[in-house]
Design a protein that fits this description.
By secondary structure, the protein is an alpha+beta fold. It contains 7 helices and 10 strands. The longest helix is centred in the middle third of the chain and has 25 residues, at 160-184.
Length: 313
């Protein structure tokens, strides 16, 4: 009997295995929704001057492949955590597939990064040209959604105990799937096809979790991410909406998040090292040229422009 559909050629997934994998997906989805449920609409994005100009003029933010982000070293934190837990679970779960079950794959998770903090000295230094850039305050209620993708605004998980619990749960559910396959005594080709499927599903679940993990030492950033997950299928493994740009990582995949009709701009915070008088006048001119109103007094509508109070030494 063939283990693939005769019409489509796609792998036939037994109902029992499908149920195990659906429980894995549901547990990850439940965690993501918990963080989604406490979302804030007003968040900030730190940027150097050239990026700030581009955001305003094109009404566009970038959701970048997380393996190519400036914070990519933070993924190393989550990946190290996964490998550590994996090694501890090998004897407990007793199956040989687990060491190879997690492989971070490019093109699976994209993210645009934001913070709750409008005037954070470490973030001025790290993300806004050492204080010469800007923090863009946005009302993120209706975010653009690339076609054929799942998108959500979620808060980063800094709690290491919670991170470990989530990774362990994913591995245990993956182990249950592998054990079920082993118990069925499928022929070798069928078993390998199903094990590859489990590896992809568990790796995908772990990638979704790890993309939300950061070292607890960075909790001061109070980061949120708008996460874009392209939907891939066996017969359509590539996504036709992705763009590419040059970065310090070389060719970098990303999605353009274009706002229509205007960027939902609420505030612009001038970096602590921007020229005192010139910076505000230039920002006002930039915003007016791109059809934004300027808040002249607290009683009027428009974009509120103010200067960072962070002290530089």
């Amino acid at each position: 009997m063939s283990n693939r559909d005769l019409d489509t050629g796609l792998l036939i997934i037994p109902e029992e295995l499908r149920a195990i994998l659906e429980r894995l997906d549901a547990s990850v989805e439940e965690r993501l929704k918990l963080h989604e449920g406490t979302r804030r609409p007003d968040l900030y994005h730190y940027a150097p001057a050239d990026a700030f100009i581009g955001i305003v003029e094109t009404r566009t933010l970038w959701a970048t492949d997380v393996l190519h982000m400036n914070d990519s070293l933070e993924l190393a934190w989550g990946t190290k955590l996964v490998k550590e837990i994996c090694n501890k679970l090998i004897d407990t779960l007793s199956y040989a597939t687990i060491p190879q079950i997690y492989e971070p794959a490019p093109g699976r998770i994209f993210a645009a990064c934001f913070t709750e903090r409008a005037d954070s000295l470490p973030q001025w230094r790290g993300y806004a040209d050492d204080g010469l850039g800007y923090a863009v305050g946005l009302i993120l209620e209706n975010m653009p959604r690339p076609p054929r993708s799942v998108c959500r605004l979620v808060k980063i998980v800094y709690d290491e105990k919670l991170q470990r619990e989530l990774v362990t749960q994913a591995f245990v559910q993956g182990g249950a799937a592998v054990k079920w396959i082993d118990d069925q005594k499928f022929d070798e080709e069928h078993e390998l096809d199903l094990l590859r499927l489990v590896k992809v599903r568990v790796s995908s679940a772990l990638s979704r979790l790890v993309s939300l993990f950061k070292n607890p030492a960075f909790e001061y950033e109070q980061e949120w991410r708008y996460v874009v997950e392209p939907l891939f299928t066996e017969d359509k493994p590539a996504h036709d909406g992705v763009s590419f740009r040059r970065s310090r990582f070389g060719v970098t995949p990303y999605f353009k998040l274009v706002f229509e009709p205007l960027l939902p701009l609420a505030e612009v915070v001038l970096g602590p090292r921007t020229p005192e008088a010139l910076a505000e006048r230039a920002v006002v001119a930039l915003l007016l040229a791109n059809k934004h109103l300027i808040q002249r007094t607290p009683r009027h509508a428009g974009v509120h422009i103010w200067r960072s109070e962070a002290s530089y030494r």
